[in-house]
Amino acid sequence: MNFLQRSLVSLILAAAFGVSAQTAGTNATTHQNKCIIPVPRDGKWTNRYELLNQRAKEAGDKAKVLFVGDSITQGWEGGGKEVWEHYYAPRQAVNIGIGGDRTEHVLWRLDHGNVDTLKPKAAVLLIGVNNIPDESNTTSDILAGVKAVVQKLEDKLPETKILVLGIFPFRKDFDPARGRACQINQALNYIDDGKRVFFLDFGYKLMEPDGTISKSIMPDALHPNKAGYEIWAKAIEPKLAELLGEKPITSP
Question: Among this protein's residues, is 220 annotated catalytic?
Fold first, then answer.
């Protein structure tokens, strides 16, 4: 290859590299993390949201515990109702879970009334599973979304200690989406400062030894039934009681 040929090849490679670099730079700058941008939803969600605002207003500073999340948290009013009555009704706990919510929706609700007037000693947060199936959300995006919700709770409830739960395992068997949840949970360990924010991951208690999810705990491999909520309550009770400065409630 002579000098002219080598020069031509060099120019072609340089041009190609420049286009690739420019494209990569464009992609990097146009990616927007939806998980951290507060947005509302519509439809039936609005009715539930307004109900929660009223619930918070009525509870006021009497509520000792706040549960924040999506349908799995809302399920304390369904499959977990009896368990709730035993562990949390005596603590005047407030549930602000809404089915289908993602981190961005919870962020919006926290800014629009769902925790106004509340001064709980502890808040229990479980969020992020609904962000995972959306492939436009990177795993890092979802992690940032969960962290943003934690930060928002810290800002809105300055006297409240926050117990962040690892995203529960979902789907019947091992799955790439479940793997994303595990990666997020691993990183969430670092938000535990031992002072105001604490992290607890007990997802393995909701699984069988072979990694599958039993219908006796999560019939649809996502939402717990009464047995699943009992596992949840027993798993967090020692830490929750500690944050409340109370003696743990024993299982019925």
Answer: yes
